[in-house]
Design goal:
By secondary structure, the protein is of the alpha/beta class. The protein has 11 helices and 13 strands. The chain has helices at about 10-25, 50-60, 85-90, 105-115, 130-145, 160-170, 190-200, 210-215, 235-240, 250, 280-305, and strands at about 40-45, 65-70, 95-100, 120-125, 150-155, 175-180, 205-210, 220-225, 260, 315-320, 340-345, 350, 360. The structure holds phosphoric acid mono(formamide)ester (CP).
Length: about 350
């Protein structure tokens, strides 16, 4: 079935249609109150969540549907060793659509290959978070009235910040979007996003360690939490955790209409005093997530009813290369065939189709 694993699974036209539907839901909620009557959403959350799980739940309820699922792996048969592959196949017997969050990169893709119902990636490790991207785009669109001609600053943990990777991939498809990457060197954006998303799409970008210097030119500032749970070394987390704190003084450096976003949860990177600033959009962003998830659930259920399938991966090699990324789903699901897609034939560069780890093959 057609699923949403990576934001680029949808064309830019499809993304824009979802945003339009979400705006219509905001204006006419009663029109959609029975749109998913009799349908069931399974929320399979193997990793903690507040916003994503609850907004998916609220979204399905406001569409007149029902929700089942779990919010931790510990009470499921995953704790006895059941695979993601089997879990998704089995849940297809009980529900019409799945929203899955998992600490292993590529887990929702494995689920989508085995399930007979649509699967939505609700965040896979440090990899991507496409439905957060839909919420981010809807918020920028509703607040600034455009997704083109923007300068967007990303600040904090750009290495593990999956929401950053997905949003940059989405923005790469809109005209004249400049990206300012603000992070400590240790938490810089992964090279695959830099080279294979931004440079391949001709995006203008700069890298800096200074938030203050960047503030005056930004239309959007996307703050992120330093992701403690992804660090192998706790001392390094302690050293980096307060690298950037947005406060009232720094907001004085920003444009009058600059929009501050954050996927949340925040820890210490935005002072609560900034919440009173009308430019602080992060709680409105969390509300927009519900509307755009409603639009997404409707779209995927409609396409499932029409029998629309996921495309097969192209330019791939099976079992010739081995993924060594310990955060990849291939590290725990032994029966998965290691599969790599060619991203640069001239240089022999391949990437794991689950986690995007790089390999060179001559
Ligand atoms: N933005 C986001 O994914 O929040 P949760 O982790 O609370 O779901």
């Amino acid at each position: 079935m057609r699923s949403l694993i990576d934001i680029t699974d949808f064309s830019v036209e499809e993304v824009n249609e979802l945003l339009d539907t979400a705006c219509d839901i905001v204006a006419n909620p009663e029109k959609y109150s029975e749109a998913c009557k009799g349908k069931k959403l399974a929320t399979l959350f193997f990793e903690p969540s507040t916003r994503t799980r609850l907004s998916f739940t609220a979204a399905m309820m406001e569409l007149g549907g029902n929700v089942l699922g779990f919010d931790s792996a510990s009470n499921t048969s995953a704790s006895k060793g059941e695979s993601v592959y089997d879990t998704a196949k089995m849940v297809s017997c009980y529900a019409d659509i799945i929203a899955m969050r998992h600490p292993k990169e590529g887990a929702p893709y494995v689920a989508a290959r085995s399930a007979s119902i649509p699967v939505i990636n609700a965040g896979d490790g440090g990899h991507c978070h496409p439905t957060q991207t839909l919420a981010d785009l809807l918020t920028i669109y509703r607040e600034l009235g455009r997704l083109e001609n923007l300068t967007v600053g990303f600040c904090g943990d750009l290495k593990y910040g999956r929401t950053v990777h997905s949003l940059i991939s989405a923005l790469a498809r809109y005209k004249n979007v400049k990206i300012v990457l603000i992070s400590p060197e240790e938490l810089a954006l992964p090279k695959y996003v830099k080279y294979e998303v931004m440079e391949k799409n001709g995006m203008d970008y700069v890298e800096t360690t200074s938030l203050e210097d960047s503030m005056p030119e930004l239309d959007v500032l996307y703050m992120t939490r330093i992701q403690q749970e992804r660090f192998d070394n706790f001392d390094e987390y302690e050293r980096l955790k307060d690298s950037y704190v947005l406060d009232v003084d720094k907001m004085k450096l920003a444009k009058e209409k600059m929009l501050v976003l954050h996927p949340l949860p925040r820890v210490n990177e935005i002072s609560v005093k900034v919440d009173a600033d009308p430019r602080a959009g992060y709680f409105r962003q969390a509300l927009n997530a519900k509307y755009v998830r409603m639009a997404l659930i409707m779209k995927l259920l409609k396409e499932a009813a029409e029998g629309r399938q996921m495309p097969e991966p192209v330019d791939v090699v099976f079992d010739e290369l081995h993924c060594d990324n310990p955060r990849c789903i291939t590290s725990t699901e032994q029966e998965i065939v290691h599969t790599f897609k060619c991203v640069s034939p001239e240089n022999g560069v391949y990437r794991c189709i689950y986690c995007e780890a790089k390999k060179i093959k001559n």
